[in-house]
Amino acid sequence: MRQFRFPLVLSPEQVLWYYQGHITAVVVQADSGETVQLELRHFRSFIRHEGIRARFELSTTEHGKFIALKKIN
């Protein structure tokens, strides 16, 4: 299993673009310096009226398949 920690900040407007179907994924830079692309659907439970502003930990298989995403702050 691999783990990536990263911050994510999305404005309410950017979240709206997701719900309108204009964007489906986000690319983040993990604390390790690695770039990770992740589908926004995994963040649904973290979306608030203010958008998203938090640090996350992503767990994947060794082959990059999604396992879990949790908020860490």
Verbal overview:
The protein has 73 residues and is mainly β. The protein contains one helix and five strands. A hairpin with a 5-residue loop joins strand 2 (25-29) and strand 3. The mean pLDDT is 96.
Quick recap:
This protein is mainly β and 73 residues long.
Helix content: 10-25%
Q: Radius of gyration from the CA trace?
A: 12 Å
Determine and state the CATH class.
Mainly Beta
**What topology, given as strand order, has the largest sheet?**
1-4-5
Spell the H/E element sequence: EHEEEE
Question: What topology does this entry show?
Answer:
Blueprint: E1 2-10, H1 12-19, E2 25-29, E3 35-39, E4 52-60, E5 66-71
Antiparallel strand pairs: 1-4, 2-3, 4-5
What descriptors fit this protein?
5 strands, mainly beta, three-stranded antiparallel β-sheet, 1 helix, single chain, 73 residues, OB fold (Dihydrolipoamide Acetyltransferase, E2P)
